[in-house]
Design a protein that fits this description.
This protein has 196 residues and is of the alpha+beta class. The chain contains four helices and seven strands, in the order βααβββαβαββ. Strands 1-2-3-4-5-7-6 form a seven-stranded mixed sheet, with helices on both faces. The chain starts with 28 loop residues before the first strand and ends in a 10-residue tail after the last strand.
Length: 196
Amino acid sequence: MSTPPLSTPRPQTTPAWPLPVSAPAARRVGFALMTEAELDAVCELEKRAYAHPWSLRHFRDSLAAGYPVVLLLGEALPGETVLPGHPGRVLLGYLVAMRGVGEVHLLNITVSPEHRRQGWARFLLDALVLWSRGQGAQQLWLEVREGNAPARALYLSYGFTEVGIRKGYYPNAGRERENAVVMSLRLPGAAEGTDA
């Protein structure tokens, strides 16, 4: 079922984020670029989602660097907490990406714990692939915790391949570090020799 996009309350500063053909649930959704105004809400969601969340500084640095930090907003259903500054909208998730020459690197993708296992991570990936292709990217890269079996399964089912390991990449309990699995996806329809 195709769902119409929500209106964005402020102008976008990077190329518009395409809305995939259909949303996974019967609710209207849309994208908005994050600003300083949403930092607290995004950091709070990040803390609820991960044992080792990104800090406020990670998000501020991403904004300062000009990386797209894209919010997935959904029409709020009864009982859901509305995102401040976005009347009638709930924060379903977000992603942070970095453009490079001929590639895009996914730095963070998060779905609110209350909205997991509903297809929103795949929906965010669909939008990222569409946007990346629009930037001329040929390849999409990411790192994922070696022990994050659900995320690895999602990425593999999406078509990513595991191409390497970064030893001790992620913080873990105490002084221990966790390895990252480096994954890559060749973007469909990517033209050879095109730069992002």
